[in-house]
Amino acid sequence: MMTKNVSEYLREAARCFPDKIALVDQKREVSYQELLLGAEHIASGLIAAGLFRQPVAVLLDKGVDAILTFLGIAISGNFYTVIDTKMPEERVEKILTTFEPKAVVTDEKNREKLGRFHQRIGAELFLYKELSVSQMDSDRIRMAEQQIIDMDILYVLFTSGSTGIPKGVIISHRSVIDYTEWAAETFHFDSHTIFGNQAPFYFDNSVLDIYSTIRNGAALYIIPQMLFSFPIRLLEYIRDHNINTIFWVPTVLSRVADIGVLEHCDIGCLENILFAGEVMPAKQLNIWMRRLPDALYANLYGPTEITVDCTYFIVNRKIEDNEPVPIGYPCRNSDILVLNKENQLVKGEEKGELCVRGTSLSLGYYNNPEKTRRVFVQNPLHHLYEDRIYRTGDIVHYNERGELIYDGREDSQVKHTGHRIELGEIETAVSAVEGITMNCCLHRAAGDQLVLFYTGEREPKEIREQLAAALPEYMLPTIYHRLGQMPLNLNGKIDRIKLKESLEAVRE
């Protein structure tokens, strides 16, 4: 029977593995039986309030309670968005204004962040402690689940918007189910898989962690955020909990590699090392591969709009330090179109915009039809029937092996000294320089300068000399700015916005 609601995953896992630990955070752990029961209590409370196919905002600390709430909302036939508890109040207000939730689930600790805003937008406030002990109503839960179809919304995740207004990406149950099934088949997830979660829940990488866990009757350890600042303790956590699968952003993996702690802790338990969200430097990948040669390494690619990932590359060959790690091939049921400026398929190694079609596609942007129409468009290769594609704005090309290579954002293509340059290409070359740990290259229009921010022990002259052997002169950074520490955003990625803000303060 075809799965049409992610709650079916939970019911099956609770039936097969009732007493098996499902989720673990710093405060507690829950079995699958407890997870199902807790989610049903939450669902009962929402149903009793008359909510069905309605938006529900979740403002809770990252942990077991948050995932219980997501699942309860799904069982009730509603859909959720995640509000990060560390998010500035101004951004919270922008998200809630767009999302227009009918309910907000929070706790005493975090309700202050809402102020009285939930009242102004007419949202009912539920405290998690009270909602989690709602009177069980199995009959109404069953009725709600029977009405849910696979194209109903599961969640809306908000990403940054060019106008300063966050964009709410709408994802259906079908898209998550399709992706989760592909991931299980590709990476052989099963009930023995133990995930170590790094991604915040408002970041779509967490979707793989959460729903792959439940689909497979696996276990998910929500790693305390503070451990990512102490790499040796992070690795000890992995070792002590026998974690065998991680899906982290490259910045975190690179930091661990650069500090040199991999040799000091036995993490042979790791079997799957997946990464996505930004470019993975080959140099740091090779450090991991030398330390754990038997693990599976996979580079996954995809914006939030295509349900986590639409391409992947299982690293099955030697990647040189100065070589970009491919993003590989389409995930099952995703079709990749690489289109040139004339909206034709590229030929050979010609660069073009990566476009996607398939069940992974978002249903669009929440409460923003204009933006939706701009990037979710008719397939330009034909006009015979409706055939929606998503234009990612990412520039890629096929290498001689037929593997997709990520070149950078369309809007990261800059004009410098009359040449069109992909900043990502410069960053890949810098990553290969011995002694460089992290880097980010930006273009300052005033003065037409390429500014390289980096961390590491090398002097600018040394970097330039090495880059000169890999890049044409017009692509060499104009200014080299060494940082004591690279600024990171809450997702663990390089905070390019912060670096852009500091551009004017950087001088030769």
Descriptive account of the structure:
The chain has 508 residues and is an alpha/beta fold. The chain has three domains: 7-176, ANL, N-terminal domain (Rossmann fold, 3-Layer(aba) Sandwich); 223-407, Rossmann fold, CATH 3.40.50; 417-505, GMP Synthetase, Chain A, domain 3, CATH 3.30.300.30. Helices cover 31% and strands 25% of the residues. The chain contains 16 helices and 26 strands. Strands 2-1-10-9-11-12-13-14-15 form a nine-stranded mixed sheet. Strands 16, 17, 19, 20 and 21 form a five-stranded antiparallel sheet that branches. A four-stranded parallel sheet has the order 4-3-5-6. Strand 5, helix 5 (117-120) and strand 6 (124-127) form a beta-alpha-beta unit. The model has no long low-confidence stretch (mean pLDDT 93).
**CATH architecture call of the largest domain:** 3-Layer(aba) Sandwich
Q: Give the strand line-up of the largest sheet.
A: 2-1-10-9-11-12-13-14-15
Low-confidence stretches: none
Helix proportion of residues, in percent? 25-40%
Strand content: 25-35%
Tell me, what is the CATH class of the largest domain? Alpha Beta
Number of strands: 26
What class would the helix/strand composition place it in? alpha/beta
Q: Average the pLDDT over all residues and give the rounded result.
A: 93
Largest sheet: 9 strands, mixed
Name the overall outline: globular
CATH structural fold name of the largest domain: Rossmann fold
Radius of gyration: 23 Å
Report the end-to-end length measured between terminal Cα atoms.
Answer: 65 Å
